Amino acid sequence: MALVLYASKTNKNAYKARVAAEYVGVQIEMAPNFQMHVSNKTPEFLKMNPLGKVPVLETPDGPVFESNAIARYVARLKGDNILYGSSPIDYAHIEQWIDFSSMEIDANISRWLYPRMGYVPYPPLPPLEEAAISGLKRALGALNTHLATNTYLVGHSVTLADIVTTINLYLGFKEILIKSFTSEFPHVERYFWTMVNQPNFRKILGEVKQAEAVPTPPSAKKPSQPKESKPKAKDEPKKEAKKETKKETEKLDEEEEEAPKPKPKNPLDLLPPSKMILDEWKRLYSNTKTNFREVAIKEIPKFVLDECYDMELYEWTKVDISDENQKERVSQMIEDAEPFEGEPLLDAKCFK
Ligand SMILES: N[C@@H](CCC(=O)N[C@@H](CS)C(=O)NCC(=O)O)C(=O)O
Asked: Where is the GST C-terminal domain (predicted)?
């Protein structure tokens, strides 16, 4: 009997076993006509996984659920175990990175991404998003350090640790980890792009593109409008709210298969809200006789202090023109193509 994997074709958790199968040369069939939220709620499916979650692998010896367990099973199916290391310490390290990437990377990406994709209510308490981001940065920092001196996570070739970790990074890179975020972790970047471009990954994932913007949460959650005008029973609004907050992964599958994704917007949305009306400030700035040099080199004029309502969000530093690095930084911020040399900047403006 062939191995049959129950999941939608874009289920990222199922990718773990599917990529592993490519490496070890095991055939896995995707369950035909699988329909998320329908097929996985049937009594037959619930016998395989009582939670009704995917993926589930049907094997000649019975079903297996939990994507990491399925991937381990597939990786061990062939005797000459290229994915599973060759010593007890290799096995331990492979398990270590599988657990690490599931608990520290996948979990934090989900906590950050799913509310922004509307899979769980938004806004989350801001500290929760911050905690997810800082937990993720901490994990990526550790991974980055390891990868600074290692091509692969364990040993000198791809193991299941690389497959699971790369798939756990995949959703992040694809949906929320924009370049300015990942560039802090150059070894993770190098590793991720190398892995997803390996033929065995490419066959399953196709071409991977990095997110260009952090998804904007669904319009700061407008209160949901009941579809019908019929007056509702007392407990129905609650039901509506519950329905809206579909379980995160459940909706992710559906979304990936059926609906266009919410359009990601500007990464600046991550900043705290500002009372400052940028256009007004720019107008004021352009119309005044005061020029950039005065702002940047001399002192911050009083009108800027008066007009810039959210001063506390900015760090104002007097440029030290004897410092080449600072000069270069200012040069990059202004429209003038000339290098920063004080006087030539009299007419230049910032805010490209
Ligand atoms: N830890 C599980 C997560 C499984 C999971 O949450 N699957 C989602 C789809 S990605 C699902 O089936 N959701 C349906 C539900 O929650 O009822 C695994 O790695 O397999």
From this structure: 87-218
